[in-house]
């Protein structure tokens, strides 16, 4: 009993850290923070299948959410996803740590409570966090595959789960190949990585003609200095995100700098133990992933102009422009080496109980002490809110209009982010389009510290050109040619909405719903639909195989348990 409880302590600690990180985000309501936009019922639409006009940055995550919230309400689903990602990340890290309670707890804390996790949480990159949580489990399963020669069924669902977005899928694929590929495993590992990333890969190929991005974005999204820590040094502690607004209050101060130093010293102490505990292939995989993540991140800091040329010239190269996001590749080695350092120090711990306990607490809580502002929803930056009642009314009106005559929605003003008062003034990607049911066109131009990064959706650009026409009639006619049926104006958002020749269907103090006449039909190429159907089938196939394998294995285990008992009873009857 005591041994079982001891084994569960790292799992409980991971849950405690997750609750402390999320805090008020777990209250009733929806967490809307930067790119994290969850709504009560996310309606399935072509854009979520990779068939929209913009680059497929949320494929297949939007599809998964749209299907899942038909079973679990959106509010509960968001909390389960966030909690599950953080707890799963911690438990996975503990499984890679050396034996011993303190080293395992240190691995949990280092992997869960760090700048990468906190900043991605605040900026709303939840698919990245899901992929991050998957990495330790992929390492464990990939290593088991290499050692035992048999493909673990859990890899068949871990890799697709890690591929909910392009950036996360790329990192998951790199880790899988680093730890599992080789010999006869190489081909199935490559096929599994391709299947787990098929939706965004195929959707990206379909949008190849528009898959380059603004070179100005390279310097905006590059690895950044954090406080007085240079970018490369901040990256050693998994920090350096481009958006200073999402860095916790203590993220660039003295405590954070000391935290990086302590973490690196602890990892250095554990280097010898880590080296001995792993074979040559594992060491190469860990070091290769760490080197790739850190060097690519630092490259965006050292030479943003070169990265800018790359993303503006090579379709799909925009995946590497967010330098700090690539640091997910560094996290497993950092957590495991720190755990080995804790194991080394714990072996030389004092004999007295009080100093021993103090050492254990200091090792486990050091990352928390270095980043105290991360606690309680990043000092209440993350909080749950409710959508205004007027939005539900607008959704019904918009759905009725599109049911009468198909078409899409245009959101005005044509700006990407909002800071609504009902969201506590927290900046968020305009949630109105996701709240409504049809496909929508929204502004995607980004302004960061005075630098304008051009949008990636040509249809949004065309809508902007239409709104710049001189008369309301011309503007309305051009929007209708683009397939726009309904225009929804957010009256509380900054910016202007030019007058249109349209019928007012409904209005409130905060919203206005306008209907345009005779929108053009927007037909999707049949080849695109077929291609995305095959890509989604490839992505889902490993999940189906894993489920089937689990059912077969469970049935075999049940038959092994019941068969001897049945024989025993028959034997006794015969006697």
Describe the structure.
There is one protein chain. The protein is α+β, with helices and mostly antiparallel strands. It has helices spanning 2-22, 61-68, 74-96, 101-112, 115-123, 126-148, 155-162, 166-180, 186-196, 198-206, 216-221, 231-236, 254-277, 280-302, 304-313, 331-347, 353-370, 375-380, 389-404, 432-435, 458-467, 472-481, 526-574, and strands at residues 30-31, 384-385, 408-412, 417-418, 428-429, 440-441, 446-448, 451-453, 484-490, 503-507, 511-515. A hairpin with a 3-residue loop joins strand 10 (503-507) and strand 11. The two termini are 39 Å apart. Residues 565-575 have low confidence and may be disordered.
Helical proportion, percent range: 55-70%
Described by the principal axes of the CA atoms, the overall outline is globular
Instruction: Tell me the strand percentage band.
Output: 5-15%
Specify the number of helices: 23
Write down the oligomeric state: single chain
Observed structural traits:
single chain; 575 residues; alpha+beta; five-stranded mixed beta sheet; two-stranded antiparallel sheet; 59% helix; disordered C terminus
Helix and strand layout, with pairings?
Layout: H1 2-22, E1 30-31, H2 61-68, H3 74-96, H4 101-112, H5 115-123, H6 126-148, H7 155-162, H8 166-180, H9 186-196, H10 198-206, H11 216-221, H12 231-236, H13 254-277, H14 280-302, H15 304-313, H16 331-347, H17 353-370, H18 375-380, E2 384-385, H19 389-404, E3 408-412, E4 417-418, E5 428-429, H20 432-435, E6 440-441, E7 446-448, E8 451-453, H21 458-467, H22 472-481, E9 484-490, E10 503-507, E11 511-515, H23 526-574
Parallel strand pairs: 3-6, 3-9
Antiparallel strand pairs: 1-2, 4-5, 7-8, 9-11, 10-11
């Amino acid at each position: 009993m005591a041994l079982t409880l001891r084994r569960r302590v790292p799992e409980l600690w991971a849950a405690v850290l997750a609750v402390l990180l999320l805090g008020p985000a777990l209250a009733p309501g929806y967490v809307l923070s930067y790119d994290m936009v969850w709504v009560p019922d996310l309606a399935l639409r072509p854009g979520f299948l990779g068939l929209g006009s913009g680059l497929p940055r949320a494929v297949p995550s939007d599809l998964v959410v749209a299907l899942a919230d038909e079973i679990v309400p959106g509010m509960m689903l968001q909390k389960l996803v966030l909690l599950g990602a953080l707890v799963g990340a911690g438990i996975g890290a503990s499984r890679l740590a050396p034996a011993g309670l303190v080293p395992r707890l240190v691995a949990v804390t280092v992997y869960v409570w760090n700048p990468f996790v906190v900043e991605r949480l605040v900026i709303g990159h939840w698919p990245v966090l899901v992929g991050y949580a998957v990495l330790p489990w992929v390492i464990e399963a990939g290593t088991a595959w290499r050692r035992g020669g048999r493909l673990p069924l859990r890899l068949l669902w871990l890799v697709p789960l890690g591929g909910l977005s392009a950036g996360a899928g790329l990192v998951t694929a790199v880790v899988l190949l680093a730890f599992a590929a080789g010999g006869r495993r190489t081909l199935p590992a490559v096929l599994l990585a391709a299947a787990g990333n098929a939706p965004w890969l195929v959707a990206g190929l379909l949008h190849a003609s528009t898959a380059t991005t603004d070179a100005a974005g390279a310097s905006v999204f590059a690895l950044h200095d954090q406080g007085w820590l240079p970018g490369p040094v901040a990256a050693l502690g998994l920090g350096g995100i481009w958006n200073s607004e999402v860095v916790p209050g203590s993220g660039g101060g003295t405590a954070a700098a000391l935290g990086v130093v302590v973490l690196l010293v602890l990892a250095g102490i554990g280097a010898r133990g880590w080296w001995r505990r792993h074979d040559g292939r594992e060491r190469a995989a860990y070091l290769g992933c760490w080197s790739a993540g850190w060097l690519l991140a630092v490259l965006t800091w050292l030479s943003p102009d070169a990265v800018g040329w790359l993303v503006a010239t090579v379709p799909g190269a925009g995946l590497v422009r967010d330098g700090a996001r690539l640091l997910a590749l560094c996290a497993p080695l950092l957590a495991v080496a720190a755990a080995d350092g804790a194991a080394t120090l714990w072996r030389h711990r004092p004999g007295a109980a009080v100093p021993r306990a103090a050492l254990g607490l200091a090792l486990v809580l050091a990352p928390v002490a270095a980043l105290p502002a991360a606690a309680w929803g990043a000092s209440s930056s993350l909080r749950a809110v409710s959508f205004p009642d007027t939005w539900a009314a607008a959704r019904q009106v918009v759905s009725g209009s599109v049911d009468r005559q198909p078409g899409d929605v245009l959101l005005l003003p044509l700006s990407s982010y909002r800071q609504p008062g009902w969201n506590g003034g927290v900046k968020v990607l305009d949630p109105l389009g996701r709240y409504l049911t049809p496909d929508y066109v929204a502004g995607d131009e980004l302004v960061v510290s005075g630098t304008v990064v051009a949008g990636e959706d040509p249809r949004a650009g065309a809508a902007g050109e239409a709104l710049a026409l001189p008369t309301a009639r011309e503007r309305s006619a051009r929007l209708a040619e683009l397939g726009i049926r309904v225009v929804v104006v957010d009256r509380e958002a900054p910016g202007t909405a030019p007058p249109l020749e349209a019928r007012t269907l409904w209005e409130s103090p905060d919203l206005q719903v306008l209907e345009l006449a005779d929108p053009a039909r927007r037909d999707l190429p049949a080849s695109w639909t077929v291609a995305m159907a095959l890509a989604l089938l490839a992505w889902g196939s490993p999940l189906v195989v894993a489920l089937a394998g689990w059912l077969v294995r469970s049935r075999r285990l049940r038959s092994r348990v019941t068969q001897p008992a049945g024989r025993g009873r028959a034997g006794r009857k015969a006697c």
